[in-house]
């Protein structure tokens, strides 16, 4: 286990053994708040990426878009040699540690809670999207996120939870950002390419799950 936890993508220098340089979710959350009014969390997240919280919001958004593209670019570099997962032909602990953060980023970006520009997630980072799609079809992923959730699409419950957090921090974003994102999540269609849900004709977004099923078991993702 200790050895697996230290596995790094070949040819890519990570900031640390935990793969923090491959974590895109904080940049996505910062983008989600960038057009909100000044508050402590917004200031913290923008400052985390060297962006002036008191600066012009449009310029701050541009800088954060560059940052998230930079992070996803590291993912693209890590997967460019054709490897299926960061740790090789099967997931290692590094994959499991980063997967949920990548999946949350997809939900924030795909729903429109965060604006990354004209390109969709799969257009911006095609290898990373394929990695996420490939991982999502594993039995362990579907066990963790709920039966019938194989394949990448917007997860209405996750988007709703994230939107609720953002609404508490920046309620002024409810009408211009949050409500359209929730509507998109209910419709599905978080990606530009069509994904078939193997073995299930039931809509993920319309199914009602218990809290137990919605709880993510990260440890199971490596199975």
TrEMBL record:
It comes from Chloropicon laureae. Pfam families: GST_C_2. This is GST C-terminal domain-containing protein. InterPro entries: Glutathione-S-Trfase_C_sf (IPR036282).
């Amino acid at each position: 286990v200790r050895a697996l936890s230290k596995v790094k993508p070949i040819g890519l220098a990570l900031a640390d053994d935990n793969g923090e340089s491959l974590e895109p979710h904080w940049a996505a959350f910062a983008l989600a708040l960038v057009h909100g009014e000044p508050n402590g969390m917004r200031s913290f997240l923008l400052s985390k990426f060297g962006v002036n919280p008191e600066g012009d919001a449009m310029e701050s958004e541009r800088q954060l878009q560059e940052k998230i593209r930079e992070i996803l670019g590291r993912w693209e570099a890590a997967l460019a040699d054709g490897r299926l997962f960061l740790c090789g032909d099967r997931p290692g602990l590094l994959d499991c540690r980063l997967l949920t953060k990548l999946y949350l980023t997809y939900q924030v970006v795909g729903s429109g809670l965060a604006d990354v520009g004209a390109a969709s997630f799969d257009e911006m980072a095609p290898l990373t999207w394929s990695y996420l799609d490939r991982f999502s079809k594993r039995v362990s992923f579907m066990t963790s996120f709920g039966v019938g959730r194989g394949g990448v699409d917007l997860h209405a419950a996750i988007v709703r939870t994230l939107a609720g957090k953002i609404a508490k921090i920046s309620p002024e974003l409810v009408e211009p950002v949050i409500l359209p994102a929730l509507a998109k999540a209910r419709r599905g269609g978080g990606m530009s390419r069509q994904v078939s849900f193997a073995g299930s004709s039931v809509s993920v977004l319309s199914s009602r799950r218990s809290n137990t099923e919605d709880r993510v078991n990260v440890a199971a993702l490596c199975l």
